[in-house]
Amino acid sequence: xxxxxxxxxxxxxxxxxxxxxxxxxxxxxxxxxxxxxxxxxxxxxxxxxxxxxxxxxxxxxxxxxxxxxxxxxxxxxxxxxxxxxxxxxxxxxxxxxxxxxxxxxxxxxxxxxxxxxxxxxxxxxxxxxxxxxxxxxxxxxxxxxxxxxxxxx
Length: 153
Fold this sequence. Notes:
- There is one protein chain.
- The model has no long low-confidence stretch (mean pLDDT 91).
- The radius of gyration is 20 Å and the shape is elongated.
- The chain is 23% helix and 31% strand.
- A hairpin with a 5-residue loop joins strand 6 (102-106) and strand 7.
- The protein has 2 domains: 4-91, no CATH class; 102-152, no CATH class.
- The chain has helices at residues 4-12, 76-91, 138-147, and strands spanning 18-22, 26-30, 40-45, 52-54, 68-70, 102-106, 112-118, 121-126, 131-135, 151-152.
- The strands form 2 sheets. It has a 5-stranded antiparallel sheet, with helices on one face.
């Protein structure tokens, strides 16, 4: 079982996490750049070595307390995997897409357009990066692309 210091070193190795002291010598780690209201990735790193890592992307029955997973007996690899998954989830916006998410669409002639998420809009870009169109929803942008004869690669 990893000690408090070992787990703290793991969490401290993530530059995007900010430590905050809480009661009983515990630490929380926040991800201030979260795309959603939730920012706490690590809750209550305790001197006994226990900590809770955000698992809101999992079904509720797979998490312990309020969407968190206990890592009392977890290995470094398991902890890093959980933190990485939590950060990836919290980088996504409410609609499930991370800013910069991109899809390639091609027509029958080999012409390529990119569908890119730029919160809160969807942009269609030509290969040189110029904007072809802007849409409020992904569905509207996809409709435009299909109407123009493009299919997602």
